[in-house]
Amino acid sequence: GLCSCSRVSHARVCVVGSGPAGFYTAQRIIKRIPQARVDILEKLPVPFGLVRFGVAPDHPEVKVGRDITVAQLKRYYHAVVLAYGAEHEKTLAIPGEGLPGIYSARAFVGWYNGLPEYANLNPDLSGETAVIIGHGNVALDVARILLSPVKALESTDICEHALEALRQSRVRRVELVGRRGPLQAAFTIKELREMTRLPGCRPLLDPSDFAPLKAHLLEELPRPRRRLTELMIKTAEEKRLAVAGERTWRLAFFRSPVEFLSCSGNSMKDSRVTAVRLETNKLEGSILSPVLVKTGHFEERQCSLAVCSIGYRSESIDTSVPFDYGRGVVTNNMGRVVDANGNTIFGLYCSGWVKRGPVGVLVSTMNDAFETAEVILEDIREGRLQDNLEDKDISELFSAQGVAPTTFSDWVRVDREEQLLGERRGKPREKIVSLQKIFHIIHNP
User: Are 41 and 64 in contact (CB under 8 A)?
Assistant: First the structure.
């Protein structure tokens, strides 16, 4: 039978993924139907996804789609919401990308933010110059961590192993490379402003990059883009005296990486990245919607460390769920999953990056999650969802599959331990990055 209006308060909803999209969707449903049961499933033994790790969580212990199928979940819940994010990094697919000394932003951010998978990344920070490919907020985050005075980081929840490496770091120059121009930069003003205010650090922006941007053109831009562009222009024109021993960062526009180089060729196992070869681009057509054109001119930038921050992509976790591989999203209409013919698959939904692609800041994810929650609530109220569910609790399915999930009260124990460890070091928390240690705390209260 279908979930009738009289059973609305008994609605059972399962959210796959405990990042912001998952929590916001659950929050809105519980607010509207306080008696509803909402279960959030997470692969790691700790919750909060992007909020905790800076990237979508990985290192699967229990995987929906592998250990538990979406079809199985649908037998226990009126609505199943896929909110598992975009945990795969886009690659440049250029020669030399596999050289030692080159890291994905996902790995690098995961390393300093305590993602268990990357706890032992040990990036080599012994050289003076780092190149970051990408002009988004994550790229600026990486640059800021590399260039911040360690004293300023010691009171944050950055991991101790990263702090120790940053204390020894010899990185003095960071160059952020983007293939298009200032008007296409994807970072936001808050992140840029933080970079311009880094103590002991000088921005090196080229005023000629901004020369075509006349005052009347700036007036036509939407306010956030105008303010961001004005801050870049102001930073480029600012006259700052060079100070001995200072660190520097630069925004390099109109450059596409075509190859990473090493002193002994790309195929040598023991070689390391020493430079990146860039092709210069130009933008043609209207200034507000230009077309990128390659020029055939190349240049090399020396570097001992390279971080690729060109975005994330979602992947399908279950072949039964329609997936648009071109866009890297679950096929959906306002969060309702639809099949290849556009027909709604009632009872199956998606939220966050797996719904709309890995773009936007936290508030975009919140609004997007609320949209999904509202269509679920509508489908519950209109009696569109199957109601012939299993009488048993989902925990019986886990037991049958040999899965022993951790619970929120288990997480509370881990949380308390992390806060205690942090207290001793004058930090909000010290994240425990070993899954073994996390399980030890859970099983030995």
Answer: yes
What's the confidence (pLDDT) of residue 270? 60
CA 57 to chain centre: 9
pTM flag (> 0.90): no
Q: How far is CA 44 from CA 19, 56, 59, 88, 439, in A?
A: 11, 11, 7, 16, 11
CA distances from 164 to 6, 159, 208, 234, 427 (A): 59, 9, 39, 35, 15
Q: Low-confidence residues of the chain, pLDDT below 70?
A: 1-9, 45-65, 264-270
Per-residue pLDDT at 287:
74
Tokens of 200: 């002991």
Buried b (16+ CB within 10 A) or exposed e, 151-160: eebeeebbbb
Question: Which pLDDT does position 128 carry in this prediction?
Answer: 97
Query: Going by C-beta distance under 8 Å and a sequence separation of 6 or more, which residues neighbour residue 411?
Result: 45, 46, 47
Are the C-beta atoms of residues 115 and 55 closer than 8 Å to each other?
Answer: yes
Residue 330 CA to residue 315 CA, distance in Å, equals 9
* pLDDT given at position 109: 94
Tell me the C-alpha distance between 397 and 403, whole Å: 8
The CA radius of gyration of the chain, in Å to the nearest whole number, is 24
Phi, psi angles (nearest 5°) of residue 38? -120, 120
